[in-house]
Every structure is written in C-alpha cells, then in structure tokens.
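Objective 1.3, modelling of assemblies. Example input:
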Amino acid sequence: MNQGRPSQLIRVLAAAAVLFNVGGNYFLSVGMKSIGETVSLASFLPIFTNLWILLGISLLAGWLIAQLSLLSWADLTYVLPITSSAYVLTALLGAVSLGEHVSLSHWGGIFLIFIGVLVVGRTRPRTVHVAVQHTRGEAAHQ
Amino acid sequence: MKWILVLVIIACNATGDLLNAFGMRRHGEVKSFHPSALGRLIASVSRNRYVVGGIVAMMVGFFALLSLLSIANLSFAIPATAGSYMIETILARFFLKENVLWQRWLGAFLVAGGVALLSLP
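Predicted structure (tokens):
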C-alpha cells in the first residue's frame, strides 16, 4: 500500500533519477573515450583525474540518492520499468551528441520501452508495507 | 570479453537493486530532500548493511561498465546490460513479496524486449 506519496511526486522523483542517470552515463562515456581502453587494474588510474568522468560520477551519486529515495516510496517492480526511460534518452543522446547510429531496430526498442513505461506507470506504485521512518535516528530499523 | 562484462554487470545490477530495495523498505520512506535531511539519509543508509551490500554490488557493476564503455558504444553498452529486467521481476516477486500485477509483467517484458532491440547493431 502506498503510504501517502502521490503518484505525481513519485513520477517527478523518477524523472530526476532518469536525468541524473542519463547525464552521468553520458559524461562517463565522453571521459572514457578520451582515456581509451581500461581492461587492466592499472589503467583505471587516469579515471580519477578526468573532469568528465568526475562530473559523470557526481551525477551518478545524485542518481543513487534519487533511486534509493524512490525505492523507499515504491516497489522495485514499479521503479525499474519506470526508470528504464533512461535507456531511451541515453540512446538518443548517444546518437545526437556522440554520433552513434540509431537504426530501425533501435527505434523499435525505444517504442517498446515507451509503451512498457506507460503500462507500468498506470499501476499503484507501492503494494507492500514499508516501515515508518522515525523523526530522530533514521537508523532505528537497522 | 564484451559479453563477459555484460554478464557481470547484469548479475551485479540484479543483486544491487534487490538489496537496495530491501534495505530501503527496512529504512522507511524518505521524508525530505533538505540538505541536512540528505546528510542524515546518507549517514543512515551507510549503516544499513543491505544498502551497503547493494552499493558494493553496484560498484563492481560500475567498474565493469567503465571497462565495457571503453571497448563498446554507449548505445550498445547501456541497453545490453538491462537484460536483468525479467530476472529482477521474478526475484522481487519471491524475495521482496511484491504483488506483481499483470501490467508489471507486461511492462517488464516490453522493456526487456525494447532493450534487446536497442542492443542490436
């Protein structure tokens, strides 16, 4: 049961999570392409001095907070499909900004994900009981 | 190498999402996004062993993703790693006891299918 969080608010947070995720992955991709292949442990070191990668990691930290908050409000089986619109935006961003090819099958995939998000978006976000957070000592339940 | 990394990322994502969902359910609803409340949230979840475990799994997946991004296109890497949708829906049904309505099965199926199409060259 949803404990008072309006679906509209959940959708706004989901949109924020999607934007953080897409932005983070985009800047990571830009940074990784500027570094080259990293298949050994030592080759990971330049990652921590690359501004694009640091920006990407910062955005993904924002995504993590939004995602965890979302999971405290809604079911995993609601959150996962809803936030999958990030894949659509990532593919489009890759095509527009990085010059990656978007084929007919890609457009088909984008359409299916869009329909999937619409279908799940019409269900009730929460179907299970969630502990009520205490005002003081948020870790009281651990 | 490309597909081994994809498998690692899928396993880590599924484990991470499940642990995070369980951990945040035990934590309770997040009430505020004020900076001080966010600070308390971060402090709280850092003591939540399920969320910590979930984040560790996601970090392993993240480094595998970085490696994948260095050898594959973004439009392949991100969609290809989303093959875990159906697996996570099944795991959420049995481990998180979520009431997975037919709309959610259909949604997960459509998203997984869409992601598979996005993975095609």
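Chain B touches chain A through 70 residues (CB under 8 Å).
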